């Protein structure tokens, strides 16, 4: 009895679909690439219910011939390559011939298409079963409608995210296509509402449409050639950073990619200008000859393999670092007329040539570097192509060579926390620290107050021990604990803002904030949606009314890259500590006897406490130690 089965078409198409189309964004990606490869100059994208109910792509491309319509649903059917040698120099975004076959195997697809000088035709495919060709009405191009995605693969459907999260990932990819195909006009509709539009007016217009016109004024526009590579686009200046990596786009020969070698090169170039938890902004196009790169690495085509990683790393690093450092070579790289002032050494010698930079870029004044540039990571040490989700926000672990799991130092000198800082390890660590603090306790009734030193340190005598209590540190810690307790119990007084704070984010950040709206509101922040990818804050906790809301929101958005969901209480620790410090009695402030008694009573004998900044609240001095000082005993 034979045991090896030859799978039929329906089964192997569903298997293939698992690799090519794992989420709605995958289907959108494949269909947009088909439209671009068809020469479309106008593309409309429609999604409903996060792409589950409907994905529709309308383009004005060359169309599909009537006789080719059934073949469009066949596996490995493509018009983009015809022989094996074509794989050595792929010039189209798609080439595998798997997309439509995979999508049609797990959904209900309808194609309406027309070629120049011919009538329009329609064909449907339901779960891999191809229907008959019939006449249709269409002036130009192709309309592909995908309905009920994953309707016949319920297991896969269970693993989909919420509609909002799926929509955010689709939007994320649509913005990449707008940025990477700047001569094409795009319209993007979500549940019937137009949320994104570009007009095919070039990269400047595309960046302005996606990120806002103000972004251009904080970037350098570059157009460089280095070691056989073309590097062009926008990079943020030395003061323009984002709280996460969702503002980073790289296109290789027009294809959006996520590549470790390029990302590390750019990150290293910015390393001496970035502070902790900051990430550079860039939209870069990299041109390279087809025989130097292999795009046939993974079905999602989001990663590529270079013939020589060192050359790629060196070229990208050299261009970006030259522009940021203001070297002589940067004059050949930066586009525009505005000029950067000379940066002179202590001897008066000019260390950078005056060169042009974009009209839209701000005048960059001489600056001091935060630290010396680190040694560049060898490109060959970088991890090579591997299976990954291209919508995932890459961490430094992805960018850097593998080191100890417990601790890793990245290029900006930041040491990533060990595993003990996460989950149960962190909870247990905090519990033990709290337990250790409360265990160090004295009996208040046996304490005798002996006065104060320098109007700062309160002296108490217990048996043969003297305790010196820092009145500011003690009061600061008590206020801090009370504020944190109110935060935990959501017992917070809110302060309305006279002028609401309004800010905009990208689609990934918007979805992240929306998923944490209730948590932020419960912590005293009046945060609400204020249009598409825009939010408004009109209330803050009364104890934190001086908070820098912009910086606070950046800290919230930085959690996108973390290993867990946002914890506002942890983020607010520094803010609460600052508030406690401001409201606590100060060193040098003379307290009345009643105030001293009240403070000591509040302390409740917990001498093991530390202030929020880590300083001890109390120091003990034994009688024996004092007698040793005076050499009464040896």
Q: Would you kindly provide a written description of the structure presented here, covering whatever features stand out?
A:
This protein is an alpha+beta fold. Helices cover 30% and strands 23% of the residues. The chain has 19 helices and 29 strands. The strands form 8 sheets. Strands 1, 2, 3, 4, 5, 6, 7, 8 and 9 form a 9-stranded mixed β-sheet that branches. Helix 1 (9-20) crosses helix 3 (99-105) and helix 12 (471-488) packs across helix 17 (573-583). It is elongated, with a radius of gyration of 31 Å.
Strand count = 29
Which overall shape is indicated by the principal axes computed on the Cα atoms?
elongated
Strand content: 15-25%
Helix content: 25-40%
Largest β-sheet summary: 9 strands, mixed
Structural class by sheet pairing and helices: alpha+beta
Q: What is the number of helices? A: 19
Unreliable stretches? 337-347, 349-425
Q: Estimate the mean pLDDT confidence.
A: 78
Distance between the first and last residues' Cα: 94 Å
Radius of gyration: 31 Å
